[in-house]
Write a structure and sequence with these properties.
This protein has about 550 residues and is an alpha/beta fold. Helices cover about 30% and strands about 15% of the residues. The chain is globular and about 75 Å long. The structure holds 1-deoxynojirimycin. The site of 1-deoxynojirimycin has 9 residues, from loops.
Amino acid sequence: MQKKWWQEAVVYQIYCKSFNDTDGDGIGDLQGVVEKLPILKELGINCIWFNPIYKSPQVDNGYDISDYYDIDPAYGTLEDFKKVLETAHSMGIKVIMDQVLNHSSDECVWFQESRKSKDNPYRNYYIWQPPKADGSEPNNWANRFRDGNGSAWQFDEATGEYYLHQYAVKMPDLNWEYEPLRQEIYKMLRWWLDLGVDGFRLDVFTRLKKPAGFPDTTVTPDVLLDRDGYILDNSMCTCLEGIHEILHDMYINVFGPYDCYTVGEGAGVTDVNAHEYISAGRQELSSVYHFMLSGRRMLTLGAERFRSVQKKWAAAMDRDLWPTQYLSNHDSARHVSCYGTDGKYRVPAAKMLATLIHTCPGTPYIYQGEEIGMVNVQFDDIADYNCCYTIGDYHNMVKSGVSPAEALKVLGPKSRDNARTPYQWDDSENAGFTTGKPWLKVNPRYTEINLEADRKSPDSIFAFYQKLIAMRQENPAILDGDLQFYLEDHPELVVYTRRCARQTLLVIANYGHNKNVLTLPASLANRKWQRILANYGGVPALERGQWLPWEAEVYELTE
Ligand code: NOJ
């Protein structure tokens, strides 16, 4: 079947703030992106996803938007964005934007109006509730960032009511029950599409629908979710039935007529319920960015979970679903550090993990820096961290008696800042990211790990990604093939085929530090093969019969 452009895409995620600073203010900018587009083109990607670059007070690094029609001055202007779009398009690179539709910043004019009076025309753009009889919050929900007093409600003096904020106090939730709000959002989405953007990544879209009457949660929280008596209960506002009506309405009013890609950030979406959101017949979203393989709280992966998640999604694909494939993003740790290793075998591990992602079914995503094997960072002072989760959790832990050093040791490996340290371009000061003071400290390993050094190395990770991306164009089985695993009990070897009418590929990867020997099952053993990708080189592992630590090879089975 004819594929859609986004099924054939390889998406590169740009966290603009940390990508490339051209004006010396320590913050990446759009001019910096234009400057680096040729390198991305060389890498071979054909779509960019921008984390939010709209005007924002940056309480949550842009996920708190104060003007949905403008670019944050730290990144440049709307004209600069048009330049990015035009240049990217001229290179055959599509551009998708993050859209934050669950909440805005409290500095957004809609909220500024909304809080003025109960009869303001914008009042119902947000979710306001009166206090309980004793003056307390409308219910016992916690916010996700442990912000303010922990509650998901903030009292506002001007009108004597509380507003809902699932995230920071300065990020009030939008009210999707209110038709004028929907129309306001639809108008804005169409405006970006008419400007030429090719689609959207929809932030926390599963949380747009809230339960009628805002009932208390009755779950008994575990220690992590109990926030000073307020309780974080995902089931309250995630994947409620009414979400489908909202998404379908958005599709009919906005996405339908455009050839756009809409990928929802799907907390709560799994292979089991994904069809409700992304089957073409539903007219909701194109695809979903799910959290079964990788996520902020998942600090390990391994052969077994990899297989099990991929198998589930491959089965779901039979129902006409198209998944995303990724291991890292701006909310997670660096995947080579947590799912691989950042020691002696960093380079083969980075390549092995990339091989798995780029040869499994779906659209692969590359998070900036993974193509050079960037690794986690550990700061020894909370003042060096920026991530709202890390800071909120740190203060809670310290308050409960944990020592600051111990809290940092626990929280460091999970911090979103691992992914957000500046891009390491070269070994000059600040890794070539800025001539100023970077907004977040550079990872001290930049002198060893940087793009320039990587590209000079005969073992270049960047060059390996180039091959993987090129392979996608040259090998129909990567896009069209089914997925079948072999040796499913093996604790470390991951073995699978991708087979379509025109081709069969065999992927064998050694997930770990141990050397492993392999006897292929009879159905594969007597096939002729040709190796098309290897992360060590030399004699093919299939010939040696032994797999080195983190070794990965791809073969075409020819007969
Ligand atoms: C998910 C985004 O990926 C994350 O970075 C952000 O903090 C929350 N949504 C809130 O918008």
